[in-house]
Amino acid sequence: MKKRLYLFFLAGLLSVGISLQLKAKEVENAVIISAFREHIESVPYLNEENMQALNEEISEHVKCLHNWSDKKAYIEEHQLQDYLDRQRGSLKYYQNSAYAMIDDFLLQYANKGIEDEPACRDSLMAVLNDRTGMCETNLNLLERELNAKEEASFVDSINWPLVFIIAVILIGIVVMVSVLKKKPKKPTPTPVNTPTNNGNTAGIVVRRKTATILKTQSLEDVIDNPAYMKVDAVDFCAESAVRRLYIKNTCVKALYEMYAPDLADSNNAKENGCMILGRWVHDAESNEYYVSLEQVVMPGDDAVFKEYELNFGGKIKLSVLEQLRKLRRETNMQYDLTCWVHSHPGLSVFFSNSDLSVQMQLKHPTHPNFLTAIVVDTLTPKEDVGIFTFRRDGNVNSKSEITKLYSLKEWYAWAKKSLEEIPVTPEAPEEAPVAKPVAKPEESSAIENAHTTSTTTDGTSFRYSS
User: 123-162 in b/e burial notation, b at 16+ Cβ within 10 A?
Assistant: First the structure.
């Protein structure tokens, strides 16, 4: 009897041990990401010290090539074309082997299990892209300087006196043809009113061409308005195509309240996001944009929020369209989708490949570079905020190019104080002064021409994974 009880006792201990082992099987993604960052430091080409030295070397070549008086001599002396080919080859090798590197690294967790393997793989790929992104940007700048050299040599080879003579001849021909074709205008006859049977004169019918009423493209009511926080892009990215952001206090308040549940329960934080409507003005001389962020549009009830995934759903597109029409009708201003926001709780602030895909879907069809993206890490002490914009070359700035992170807590403190000093009446719509357009406004809406295509293959929703 004692022997049988002893055997039962051993079997119970064994089952408890197996149960505990199964519970501890899965490894959290954050732990794997941290371990992967340490792993790539052991790779000679990818470690941070080597990438920094390589970026400095390439940047120095770009700087010298840009300022050198005899570019051809500098290129030949340093064999820059061969240097560019070698560096591109090395970078391409590691980019092509990224998936294999991630597979090899994750083999050590095969027996333990991974909490969310697809999301984990995306995060690891984002780490690699972030590490190599700056190098690829600098190589593109170097290649552009090399091509600029060839363009200059082509310009120098043009026979400008001959071009001038041909231009004078063509202008003379155009003037002669226009003089020969010119005919005197016939006098316009004065319309005569034809009497009707009852003695009255018949009415003269005037037909007018109808023209589309264009909305005003202006930020005059925003520039010195204390209800808007000014953020200069040069503070966080020197190469940004956006010169300055004007963020409205009510917009900041809505963002903070959207992430309030994550702040209250950090253990169950999930990705969350929204769209922001505003206005923009393009400075053609500097090719820079001034952008306002004014009204938040929240996702509909078909949105899905998970720990490492955010599906905006399809209803948010209808809400954006409805709000845009309302704002344009009430203010006679050209409102567009100027920003989209999402969070990376506990994963730090970065811009993944999936984020870049959404950015490309949402951009304006003719002025893509004013669209801004905001990424929030709600689990950091200051609730870090990163701002991602298009650079002047049309690419989106990476995490390595961001020189400053902002704090959602500090933004909210400013907004709260601003709202106390400038009370807002929610019932009355804001009135913006109607000014003459400083430039020709766009006749089509970004949301109608581009945003409706910002869907997955089922055509119903925005979806991406961090």
Answer: bbbbbbbbbbbbbbbbbebbeebbeebeeeeeeeeeeeee
